[in-house]
Write a structure and sequence with these properties.
- This protein has about 550 residues and is an alpha+beta fold.
- The chain has 3 domains: about 110 residues, Rieske Iron-sulfur Protein; about 290 residues, 4-Layer Sandwich (Metallo-beta-lactamase, Chain A), CATH 3.60.15; about 110 residues, Nonspecific Lipid-transfer Protein, Chain A.
- Helix content is about 20%, strand content about 25%.
- It contains 12 helices and 31 strands.
- The chain is globular.
- It starts with a strand and ends in a 7-residue tail after the last strand.
- The protein binds FE2/S2 (inorganic) cluster.
- The site of FE2/S2 (inorganic) cluster has 10 residues, from loops.
- It catalyses: CMP-N-acetyl-beta-neuraminate + 2 Fe(II)-[cytochrome b5] + O2 + 2 H(+) = CMP-N-glycoloyl-beta-neuraminate + 2 Fe(III)-[cytochrome b5] + H2O.
- Its EC number is 1.14.18.2.
- Keywords: 2Fe-2S, Electron transport, Iron, Iron-sulfur, Metal-binding, Oxidoreductase, Transport.
- It is an enzyme of class 1 (oxidoreductase).
């Protein structure tokens, strides 16, 4: 079985993108002569190969179609609605394989991306066998951490059981079951979906490594390695396995799993299909477009994120349009869109059971009260209500920490109340203490590091980061916890055009950003060569920018 790969099959420059008309566009790749169809709607682009599913015929515009959404095959006259990617003639027959249309924020170009093979789980198919009670159970632990017991194997997903994520910005909402760490230590294998610290939790792995340094951990072969920081972290894990995308990994005779990439962030995000005796569990975790939107239909269990709010935008921005009411409207609309998207996804895939998870974090530290009050998230209950209305055949599950779902019992009788075991009534569900000082002090220990006594660290650091040749000037201000400039803290300019550190802004026209960073987090990030995700996703900075555009290179 060969590994799944992601390929750009057509690239259009910004000028060509601007000439795309509303509705159907036919395009040809001048390099290989292959043809594509791009459908432009008000707020999105969809694309596919110009190749009929029947016998590979070429599509042309369907002159009978008044809405401008349908193309007609020149061979035997099948018809495809490119707005939905459904074949309308023969009706209710096939879906066209869609390409990912990736529009660049920076240069306005468009890439059509294809995953090959598109549906690798169909290789070596296994018939679903009858299960007996207790043969497959899912136990929700916390956030994105779920324990799958299949036969006599236990697999744990994304264990974040202790400590914060994104420096000091995210804290666990749920109290993990009291035996969670023991369960983790006893797992047969662990899947970690991506490098973000609410999935790859070094405080959790540090504890685990003391008991089971050789526990098998599986990650996808992303171009940005999940465990890039392992050596430096000092955590001793000796059995990390990087596996190719789209290839079954056999755990035993009955259990196997496959890691798939995300269509939008293939360099970083992954999702998982675990299969036991032909029963599939699909965990799309945080993927924006898991496996480019092509996923197995009718799986036994599907779980995905639901909450939103996993970014500093727009809460940490100020100035210009970023008033409180603009932010509130934006957040409300975005959350609504996410809820609709998840509902539609579940509706199209028709899993037997759906479980929202991977959204149970809180901005618990008192210094982040503003974020906590503004960063409203979707409720799993609201999502499940919406799903039940759209997909009456899907059973929804909103688990509490320690809730156990017995798949065999649900499949046999979805109304069987004993198929799901809830934790005892006295169980503490929500965390109310987080050991803030332990973790914040650890970060703040970086403040007094010797290197920061010398202003030259600034040049060393940005030279090491190596970003330049971009017409952007930033002003970075070190602050206290409340984003007040710190006495004795650094306040400096970086000009990324030629990577210089001027005292005043240059005369030429340039994009400008002012970034206030909490000193402890900033220095911890600098000292350890970490990603600025800790600052940005962890709400540890405040930003204003002129012009108000997203910079990316
Ligand atoms: S090849 Fe398209 S209808 Fe036959």
């Amino acid at each position: 079985m060969t590994s799944q790969v992601s390929m750009t099959v057509l690239r259009l420059q910004a000028e060509d993108v601007q000439t795309l008309k509303d509705g159907i566009n036919f395009k040809k790749n001048p390099e290989d002569g292959k043809c594509y169809i791009i459908y432009k709607a008000k707020d999105k682009l969809r694309a596919c190969r110009n190749q009929c599913k029947h016998q590979g015929g070429l599509f042309i515009k369907d002159i009978e179609d008044m809405d401008g959404r349908t193309v007609r095959c020149t061979k035997h006259y099948w018809k495809l609605n490119v707005a939905t990617m459904e074949y309308v003639n023969p009706p209710d027959s096939f879906m066209q394989d869609e390409l990912e249309a990736v529009l660049s924020d920076t240069d306005g170009s468009l890439e059509l991306v294809e995953l090959n093979p598109p549906d690798p789980w169909t290789t070596e198919p296994r018939e679903a066998q009858e299960l007996h009670a207790g043969e497959i159970t899912l136990t929700y632990i916390t956030h994105a951490c779920m324990e799958l017991k299949a036969g006599n194997k236990k697999m744990m997903f994304d264990p974040w059981l202790t400590g914060p994520a994104f420096a000091r910005g995210w804290w666990l909402l749920h109290e993990p079951p009291s035996d969670a760490m023991d369960r983790l230590c006893q797992a047969d294998l662990i899947y970690i979906s991506h490098m973000h610290s609410d999935h790859l939790s070094y405080p959790t792995l540090r504890q685990l490594s003391k008991k089971r340094p050789d526990i098998p951990i599986y990650v996808g072969n992303t171009s940005r390695p999940v465990f890039w920081y392992l050596e430096k972290s000092g955590v001793n894990l000796t059995n990390v396995n990087v596996v190719p995308f789209g290839v079954w990994q056999n755990v035993d005779d009955h259990l196997r799993f496959m890691i798939l990439m995300d269509g939008v962030h293939p360099e970083m995000d992954t999702c998982l299909i675990a299969e036991y005796k032909g029963h599939m569990i699909l965990n799309t975790v945080d993927c924006t477009r898991p496996n480019n939107g092509r996923l197995p239909h009718g799986v036994d269990v599907m779980m995905s994120d639901f909450a939103g709010g996993a970014s500093g935008f727009p809460m940490t921005f100020h100035g210009g349009k970023y008033t409180e009411s603009w932010k509130a409207d934006f957040i409300k609309n975005e959350r609504k869109k996410l809820l609709n998207y998840k509902t539609q996804l579940v509706k199209s895939l028709q899993p037997k059971i759906y479980c929202p998870f991977a959204g149970y974090f809180t901005e618990a530290h008192p210094s982040d009260r503003y974020i906590k009050e503004t960063n409203n998230k979707n409720s799993p209950v609201d999502l499940n209500d919406s799903i039940r209305k759209s997909c009456p055949n899907t059973l929804t599950w909103t688990p509490l920490p320690g809730s156990v779902l017995d798949l065999a019992l649900v499949l046999k009788d979805p109304s069987n109340r004993s198929a799901i075991t809830e934790p005892p009534n006295i169980t503490k569900i929500y965390k109310d203490t987080w050991d803030f000082d332990l973790y914040v002090d650890e970060l703040n220990a970086s403040i007094s590091a010797e290197i920061f006594k010398h202003k030259s660290w600034i040049q060393h650091y940005y030279n090491w980061a190596g970003f330049k040749g971009y017409n952007l000037v930033i002003r970075v201000i070190e602050t206290d916890d409340d984003f007040k400039p710190l006495r004795g803290g650094y306040d400096y300019l970086v000009d990324f055009m030629g990577l210089s550190f001027p005292d005043t802004r240059p005369e030429r026209e340039h994009a400008y950003e002012e970034i206030k960073n909490r000193v402890g987090v900033m220095r911890h990030v600098v000292l350890n060569g970490l990603l600025w995700d800790d600052l940005y996703i962890g709400f540890n900075n405040r930003m204003s920018r002129d012009p108000d555009v997203y910079h990316h290179k």
